[in-house]
């Protein structure tokens, strides 16, 4: 059993940090939009855009477990300050290069890489700290708020970026990202964040375990816990399905529904609006008492929405819009409880390692899903992929309900009984 914060007095310090982080995410979204559009306008190359995406993805896959191991060793508040500052400094460098008109494509690649490295450390530090700042029974609601925030950023981030680009030069847009990063950093100097103290039975605290041993501990922690292992496998299947499903939407709109950029924007807005609604609903409702049941509901909803995309004729775009709203609505019902389960069941001193290992495994499956979806869709048509996605989503939901190790994961939270209990102190 792990320690959790008190049910009262937690909201003010947590939401002080959360609000600063929300502004920082908005600034990052605006900067990301501006950089992608600059690359598009300057090069007109799909290869350049794909390379930019790959540069941003590689650190999350390759550095995830290593970053998580260090997050579990280091002061998480300091990790967030340094990571946010590094990302802000990278944006400041870009702003300077734009200002002196010396910017090159490789500069953008390099800065995107640095920003992704910073994010690889910041994300696990924030998520692992959340579980020690927020009472266990409130984690799902907080996850719902995070999903609402993500949905809002997806809906409003790009238009805001376009607006700022019309009002400011590129170096001004990048300075906006620097300013919002400052809003995230300042509260971290004043708000205490819980820090798990790793105390091992019979271990001399002066002896340091190697970082690779820490990573192996994280892997053993997952492998020794059947419920978490099953949840990881199902999440990987979900990512194999979802990444191509969203990547193929533009082709679905253009080739099947005969739409234009306007119709694509309408469908993406429907998905984003559904995501906001789902996040708000989860924030208020909190989900079922067993969080895994909320995830199962989301998986079934995905299945129905994808099946609609897979069978409707090309003259029923309005039905595709409605299904898109359902897809958006289901995203928080899956992602929110999933993060709440991980935060409430993984031992505090292991969360950095396990969360980043989990994330790396999930992201590894994205290229696999894209590699499968392309040939399948080219040979059998786009809609066959969405029908297959519907089946896999439904099977994933069934796993949550019928396999005891997954269904009762919150009850069987002590995945590695050999580890001592964590003591928590304020950092």
Your description of this structure?
With 427 residues, the protein is an all-alpha fold. It has 2 domains: 11-194, Growth Hormone, Chain: A, CATH 1.20.1250; 211-407, Up-down Bundle (Growth Hormone, Chain: A). The chain contains 16 helices and 2 strands. A two-stranded antiparallel sheet has the order 1-2. Helix 2 packs parallel to helix 5 and helix 6 runs antiparallel to helix 11. The radius of gyration is 22 Å and the shape is globular. Mean pLDDT is 79; it is low at 199-207 and 415-427.
Mean pLDDT: 79
Main beta sheet: strand number and arrangement?
2 strands, antiparallel
CATH homology-level superfamily of the largest domain = MFS general substrate transporter like domains
Structural class: mainly alpha
- Number of distinct helices: 16
- Per CATH, the architecture of the largest domain is Up-down Bundle
Helix content: over 70%
Strand order of the largest sheet: 1-2
Q: How many E-type strands? A: 2
Q: Rg to the nearest angstrom?
A: 22 Å
CATH class of the largest domain: Mainly Alpha
Q: Outline the low-pLDDT stretches.
A: 199-207, 415-427
Query: How many domains make up the coordinates?
Result: 2
Percent strand: under 5%
CATH topology of the largest domain: Growth Hormone, Chain: A
**3D shape:** globular
H and E string? HHHHHHHEHHHHHHHHHE
Head-to-tail CA distance between termini = 21 Å
């Amino acid at each position: 059993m792990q320690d959790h914060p008190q049910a009262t007095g937690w909201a003010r310090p947590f939401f002080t940090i959360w609000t600063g982080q929300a502004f920082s995410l908005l600034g990052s979204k605006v900067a990301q939009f501006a950089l992608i559009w600059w690359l598009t306008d300057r090069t007109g190359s799909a290869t350049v855009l794909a390379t930019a995406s790959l540069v941003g993805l590689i650190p999350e896959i390759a550095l995830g477990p290593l970053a998580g191991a260090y997050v579990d060793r280091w002061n998480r508040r300091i990790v967030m300050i340094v990571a946010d500052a590094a990302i802000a400094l990278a944006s400041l460098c870009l702003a300077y290069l734009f200002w002196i008109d010396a910017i090159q494509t490789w500069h953008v690649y390099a800065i995107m890489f640095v920003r992704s490295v910073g994010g690889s450390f910041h994300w696990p530090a924030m998520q692992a700290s959340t579980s020690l700042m927020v009472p266990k029974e409130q984690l799902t609601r907080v996850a719902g708020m995070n999903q609402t925030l993500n949905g809002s950023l997806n809906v409003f981030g790009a238009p805001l970026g376009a607006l700022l680009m019309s009002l400011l030069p590129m170096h001004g847009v990048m300075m906006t990202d620097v300013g919002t990063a400052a809003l995230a950093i300042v509260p971290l100097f004043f708000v205490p964040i819980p820090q798990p103290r790793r105390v091992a039975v019979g271990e001399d605290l002066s002896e340091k375990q190697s970082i690779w041993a820490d990573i192996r501990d994280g892997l053993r922690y997952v492998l020794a816990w059947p419920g978490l292992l099953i949840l990881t496998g199902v999440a990987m299947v979900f990512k194999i399905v979802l990444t191509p499903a969203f990547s193929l939407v533009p082709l679905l709109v253009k080739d099947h529904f005969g739409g234009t950029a306007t119709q694509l924007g309408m469908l993406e807005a429907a998905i984003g609006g559904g995501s906001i609604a789902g996040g708000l609903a989860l924030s208020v409702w909190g989900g079922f008492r067993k969080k895994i049941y909320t995830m199962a509901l989301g998986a079934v909803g995905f299945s129905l929405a994808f099946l609609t995309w897979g069978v409707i004729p090309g003259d029923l775009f309005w039905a595709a819009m409605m299904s898109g709203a359902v897809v958006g609505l289901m995203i928080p019902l899956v992602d929110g409880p999933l993060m709440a389960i991980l935060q409430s069941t993984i031992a505090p001193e292991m969360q950095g390692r396990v969360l980043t290992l989990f994330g790396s495994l999930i992201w590894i499956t994205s290229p696999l899903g894209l590699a499968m979806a392309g040939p399948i869709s080219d040979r059998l048509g786009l809609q066959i992929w969405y029908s297959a996605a519907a089946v896999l989503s439904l099977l994933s939901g069934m796993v949550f309900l019928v396999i005891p190790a997954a269904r009762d994961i919150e009850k069987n939270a002590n995945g590695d009984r050999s580890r001592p209990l964590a003591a928590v102190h304020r950092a």
